[in-house]
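User: Hello, can you help with two protein structures?

Assistant: Certainly.
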Amino acid sequence: MPEHSHILIARRVLELEAEALTLLAHGLDDRFVKAVDTILAAKGRVICTGIGKSGHVARKIAATMASTGTQAYFVHATEASHGDLGMIGQDDVVLALSKSGETKELADMLSYAKRYSIPLIGMTSQANSTLGRAADILLQVPDAAEACAETNAPTTSTTLMIALGDALAVALLESKGFKADHFKVFHPGGKLGAMLRTAGDVMHKSTELPLVASGAPFIEGVKAMSAKGFGVLGVTHPDGTLAGLVTDGDLRRYITTGRSVATIDDVMTKGPRTADPASLAADVLRIMNERKITQMFVLEDGKPVGLIHMHDLLKAGLA
């Protein structure tokens, strides 16, 4: 059966843009290195600017950088000519986007950067354009055909700029050693923020933990488990480290056997799976799902400092 025309169009667009991205990747040179080093050395922010679709891309690049540890801000080029140039300081770096490099609205921004010796990184397809010549560092994107050939609407060009902006942001974050726990600070809400929370963020603290000492009478253990309501009990060695745990299921299984039980140790599971406070809560959830368990103790130096229940992960938005 012939493929639908919509599929053929979509495939043509994606293949065209993929080819352009390959050209962009192979064309990277020392100018990219200089751009990254210039931003790393700057004491201020990266001021991203552009007009039209390039402006939308500039705003996106600023947002990506800001969320990954590089101070960045979007300034609309037209608004800059009407007072917003005052938002740009001499410690900043300007990242200006324009496919043609001849966007007239950028003129005041370029002049301002030159006047105050503010480093200017230009992202354009035309090296000999006004932006290309003015830039201290030129990040040239391939002058590839737009996917919408008849109207020449920005499609391939904006894809290239977005990708190059992503490449800058990732190079910067990796150079800074930016990690998941840093990323979490900027993404406290939503699913992404939840996935970056740690076991220490979602666990019940030590004062709430259902614990008894090893060798405690069986009935004492049952009472301690019932008092806390987690459906699990931790059994500890004399030095406070975790010896094992007992679940509601363990109790039911032993009671139905009719066997005599003297101490809580007789029903506990030794060497249970545990977590570290710094473990990602998402990893704890994955382990719980794989092991088909609903509770996990959190240990520091072998001693229980917290307890995570599957319900806690659900409330945190992880599942």
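That covers the first. Now for the second protein you mentioned:
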Amino acid sequence: MIFIKPLSKIAASVPPSATLAVDSLAKQMKAEGKPVVGFGTGEPDFATPQNIVDAAIAAIHAGKTKYTPAAGIPELRRAAAERLRLDCGLDYKPSEIVVASGAKHSLFAALMCLLDAGDEAILPAPYWLTYAEAVRFSGAVPVVVYADEPSDFKVTAAQIDAAVTERTKLLIINNPSNPTGMLYDRDELRAIADVAVRHDLYVVADEIYYKLLYDGRVFTSIASLGDDVRERTIIINGVSKSYAMTGWRVGYSASNAALATVMANYLSHSTSAPSTISQWAAVEALAGDQSTIEDMRKIFEQRRDYVVQHVNAIQGLSCPTPHGAFYVMINVASAFGKRCGDRVIANADDFALALLESQYVALVSCESFGCPNYVRISYAASMDDIATGIDRIARFMEELHG
């Protein structure tokens, strides 16, 4: 018998991404010829705008295919700083911008550079499941603060204040939120910022969906609420969602100069910078024509309205109206205890799996998002797919309720 030392306890304890697992299973079933409709991953179905594609091709022809500085090409760091100034009223120097291989990578790098073993990070729930795992990778502990549907899935400053201990190092806030699509307004953020400043907490602000807002809502970056909170805030952003560039893998962070330097050093010893061609495409995305964003945003809003209206018309299901992003949270608790074939649906995980197996519709269970009783549907899909999928969901619920 061969004895091999065990793997890292931290790494071995990390589960696979639920969203990517559902997407992978759905794609496998589709490859087998099954008529799967996928609403799992948060990926716009639009093509990357042509001006961005052209910029990437031009970069290749110009020979821009070599290594770049670990924190990204100067042109991209300037473009990101200028975009934050124009859209959010934020004044960051290019040296305070650090480019990484997607917003997820920016988040991971920030947490690895901020947290030590035993630190605590406050995490409002529902949350994007990667937050908790990224905190654990650093050896720190996620402290979950829960919000429910009557509160629009938003935690209060008082809840955050009550969760602070002597070990608390930072707060993660996602605005607008994945998976809920809800938006914290300026007053709510002001109260949360006051708590962060009073307890000297860092604020990791994931603002990747900030351009995708509906019903005339206005976005406020928490970092814009004063120098005291700006110095403690690490903005996480990128080009994947608003510019339909998920596969290009370019994210960026904005923070104080000291943290930006440490993050750049961290990246220099891990992945270095993203693809050079992708970086030049991202320059065009951030600095070029922005009209395609509004075109996509209007279509997303129409899809949101359709999903909310038709899901709420299905017996046994309900959902609130999200403020932004491209997700809807559906309460499926009425299905618990029901039988689908040989499967008894005990929770949201069972619901999502039974729906995929019987009706070929892929949703994501929110059990691992800190929100049992709910599933998430992404309306970053065509209207034809959305209509087909919701019809199948309605048929599924009719069969469950007999």
